[in-house]
Amino acid sequence: MTTIVFDMDEVIYPFSSAYAAWRQTNGLTTFELANMLRYDFASVLGHAEADGDRTSTFIDDAAALDVPPLDGALAGLTALRQDHQLVVATNRYATQSPGTLRWLGR
């Protein structure tokens, strides 16, 4: 059986749009999705926070758990799963594992 490895964010999980909406909802910033051209949080957010703590808070938040997969992702994975072993790879912080695994397991 062939193994297919894929990234989680922006492949099955719409991280940029969900994170931008969460920040706006929680009054953390007025930044827009258009500002999220790369995952350089210090540059995007304009401060040296590097945003590990805030992204961890977001990923552990119930709102992040309610975010649906990207359009077509679930159907595509379901089809691929019939003949392949699927593996999720991510560059998320280790501290974000519980929230990440909760979302993947739902």
Q: How would you briefly describe this protein structure?
A:
With 106 residues, the protein is an alpha+beta fold. Helix content is 44%, strand content 11%.
Describe the structure.
There is one protein chain. The protein is α+β, with helices and mostly antiparallel strands and 106 residues long. It is built from 6 helices and 2 strands; from the N terminus they run E-H-H-H-H-H-E-H. The longest helix is centred in the N-terminal third of the chain and has 11 residues.
What would you call the structural class?
Answer: alpha+beta
Trace the largest sheet across and list its strands: 1-2
Average pLDDT works out at: 81
Rg over C-alpha atoms, rounded to the nearest angstrom:
15 Å
Secondary structure: helix percent: 40-55%
Tell me the distance between the termini: 25 Å
Q: Indicate the proportion of strand residues.
A: 5-15%
Report the sheet with the most strands, covering strand number, pairing sense and barrel closure.
2 strands, parallel
Outline: elongated
Number of helices: 6
State the total count of DSSP E strands. 2
H and E order: EHHHHHEH
- Could you list the spans in which at least 5 consecutive residues all have pLDDT below 50? none
